[in-house]
Amino acid sequence: MGIIGFIIVGLIAGFLARAIVPGDDSMGIIPTIVLGMVGSFVGGFLGSLFSDDGIDFSAAGIIGSVIGAIVALIAYNAITGRKKTAH
Question: Cα 43 vs. chain centroid, distance in angstroms?
Answer without folding.
Answer: 7
